Amino acid sequence: MKGRAAKSKPEAGPLDDIxxxxxxxxxxxxxxxxxxxxxxxTKAERxxxxxxxxxxxxxxxxxxxxxxxxxxxxxDDARNGITVRDRGGRTFSRLAAEYRRSPLWTKxxxxxxxxxxxxxxxxxxxxxxxQAAAFTKPILREWYETLYRENGKWIAQHDIRVMSVVLGxxxxxxxxxxxxxxxxRMETPPPRDRVLSWEExxxxxxxxxxxxxxxxxxxxxxxxxxxxRQADVLAARVENFGPDGMWRFLRSKAKQxxxxxxxxLPVHSELAPLIEARRAEAKGEGPLILNAEGAAYLPDNxxxxxxxxxxxxxxxxxxxxxxxxxxxxxxxAWWARExxxxxRDRADGMGNQSDKDVRLGITYNPASxxxxxxxxxxxxxxxxxxxxxxxxxxxxxxxxxxxxxQAFKAAxxxxxxxxxxxxxxxxxxxxxxxRESGRITNP
Length: 443
Known about the structure:
Shape: elongated
Radius of gyration: 33 Å
CATH topology of the largest domain: hpI Integrase, Chain A
CATH class of the largest domain: Mainly Alpha
Oligomer: single chain
Largest sheet: 3 strands, antiparallel
Number of strands: 7
CATH architecture of the largest domain: Orthogonal Bundle
Number of domains: 3
């Protein structure tokens, strides 16, 4: 008809090509011609069992139909009396709120609480209305793979772990039977092995001075010479450094009551002049590390300023562009080993179990080419001594005739040699020990 625009043919919805469509799944086209897809329980199911609407993804229909089918099973179980009636709705948002009010939340460090809170808000935008009992391993594995593709393995692993913490709390509260976020076979990123050279350390210090960030210069030096975490460096106070040259502080990550919580470390000789200058400037008290405005550093501002220092240093030394502040702690452990410190000594200095824990050992004891060279050069051909065999016969505590069983047990406490000989001879009374020849002789 002239003068009137022809009405466009409606676009096919995401459910039009699916047969059969799971119950309670709805679709609607928005004004911008995109499609909304969701699972919606009936009014009776909302009131009786606490179910809420759950958004689905129209671009991932296989995953969406799988989740809708799982939710339908939950409804059927609730109708059959398998699940507990809950008028309030045990959604993930409600569970996250319960976790924030729990003693477990108050025991977290402030930085951890900030990180968890930001992560949970991001998770709740997607899963907040979902029933906690509706999560399954296939659903969370699918979401992990989506996060992996879109945001990378670090964000994917981090978000799933935070979600696992909350769902684990739900398991303790009886909201869910088991935590579906555990054992998802997530890819564990390899530990960092970045170690700074002394030239790179000098470049970072020079860059901080060029930018007028004296506090950042001191923080880099403290982490480099003392091997402590960023949180402990920023929490350090001038009064923690005594006139006896010792630094006394409480570690941030050690468990309360642990022997490693309270630390007493000698100040490195090359760091001592910087500490004394700061002590004189602060007149004996106050935060050790200050920003350009003369106030204590906040973690976010500290990361921003360190990024500026790193970018400035990378102008003259490009490899520095991938350095993180935490790499200074690992570098301390590496150079301490090069200086002759034992694994136990370095673990005591860092306040961890890197000498016993395999993953910590990999993190703080990366491979050293110089160390491998020393090990290769340490191999020597044994030197024959005058009048003595190359491989002396195991000596007994006392030379006296004894039964062969006793002789071999004394010479080989672990029993492997005795077991081998006994199985070969298949007799018990095989002979006696001759102290002159050092052999077992027949009776």
